[in-house]
Design brief:
alpha+beta, seven-stranded mixed sheet, Nucleoside Triphosphate Pyrophosphohydrolase, Arc Repressor Mutant, subunit A, 7 helices, DNA-binding, three-stranded antiparallel sheet, 2 domains, 32% helix, 228 residues, homodimer
DNA sequence: GCAAAAGTGTTTTGTCTACACCCATGA
DNA sequence: TCATGGGTGTAGACAAAACACTTTTGC
């Protein structure tokens, strides 16, 4: 490095991951028991420090993989939190990311290792530092996102019923929709494949299973949709 | 500070400001000639380092004020750019902000001091590092923002004509709209006060001047609108 | 045969789009 | 009086919202 910048302060830079999952009824966020002082043992987002040799995004990916064992997960940057006193133990700026994962995909052993557990968004416990703000902002972002881009693929199992998909959107918006209108709208997007297979555990009649058409889904992820 | 974090790397953290203005026809961005090595003398966004004693947001505000002499400007965080090699001279992460200002409000002397000038978005010169990405992303954000929130107040003079407002939206979307439909839509938002005063320089008949109703405008800024 | 969830269409309402003429004024 | 830009309304297309009954099948 040249000496050009030598007279400037260097700061600790962290990443924190807001990890959302959907259990069929509720949106949940993954919290861990903080493993460091200060505030050790309290509920916290999963985080870590950015090293000099990795990009901020890579750091977030690493942290997410450490906790869940998953790579190739949908993750986007949320916001950089840079208040001077946001971390009680010193000057740390944190770049928050939010990730969407299929709730059944995580590795149970890893979660236990980090004393992690899923918390309904309506019952988030007290969390350290400004993590509450991060969670609130990420929920807003998720809602905005879901208006303009499809999110089902990231949060639902590969095969799912129309009911599950609708329940997801109802959970995101904390609202309920008309079944017929919802089905019509979703099908008109042309991103679903209806399987001949049926899910028979929830009703006698059984409901069709769907999968996302990956190509069309990804196209809409780029182009945007107009849902709601 | 406790010693808890002592074994982690510390990084240089910068802010860069994308400053947009509207000249009645075009959206323009304010660029400066970079005053530091490396790349000294090349076009760049206005930036600066975050010191240990100020928040990231305060640093951005400071940088913006240094350049324009303005405080109380609309500014929001865009994105944190954290690639390892984004700055040729060393590891610097940068938090980009975008600001909207009334183009006539800046202090000419300050602009000269920083060798700053306004550049049409269609004719952005080569800029240092990843600033091109920052500008591109900020334009996307401006467009998204303008769909969901009113932006006229930040970019137009206090009193403005319907034509100016429409020209602003046409510039943002690089598109043209039907005059009647545009007027109807905007007026239906109920955020404008029509003055009895008329602007008479552009036509014989003269066109009504409007101001924003600050209260209603701010309400919509929170609640969101649906424009376009 | 009945309980429980699944699947499906139509009507109404509101919103978006396209489109053209008269008005006021200064020169 | 005429040239210039300013202001205004309506009809048709399209999308959104409201709304209820029939189907399947395991028990």
């Amino acid at each position: 490095m040249t000496k050009a910048y030598n007279n400037h302060d260097r700061l600790l830079v962290a990443v924190d991951c807001i990890i959302f999952g959907f259990d069929g009824t509720e949106i949940k966020a993954l919290l861990v028991k903080r493993s460091l002082e200060p505030e050790k043992g309290k509920w916290s987002l999963m985080g870590g420090f950015v090293s000099a040799k990795e990009s901020v995004h890579d750091a977030a990916t690493r942290v997410l993989e450490n906790l869940t064992g998953l790579d190739n997960v949908y993750m986007e940057q949320l916001h950089c939190f840079g208040d001077v006193k946001r971390d009680a133990a010193g000057r740390v700026i944190s770049v928050a990311y939010f990730a969407l994962i299929k709730l059944d995909d995580y590795k149970e052993a890893l979660l236990q290792k980090h004393q992690a557990s899923w918390h309904s968004l309506h019952k988030i416990p007290a969390v350290v530092f400004d993590h509450k703000k991060m969670i609130a902002l990420s929920l807003e972002r998720l809602q905005q996102k879901a208006i303009a881009y499809p999110i089902g693929f990231e949060l639902l199992p590969t095969k799912f019923t129309m009911q599950q998909l609708q329940a997801l959107y109802e959970a995101v918006y904390n609202n309920s929709f008309d079944k017929r209108n919802f089905t019509k709208k979703i099908l008109s997007l042309n991103i679903l494949n209806r399987l001949t297979e049926k899910e028979k555990t929830t009703s006698r009649k059984g409901s069709f299973l769907y999968t996302f058409d990956k190509k069309k889904y990804n196209l809409l992820k780029k182009q945007g949709i107009k849902l709601l």
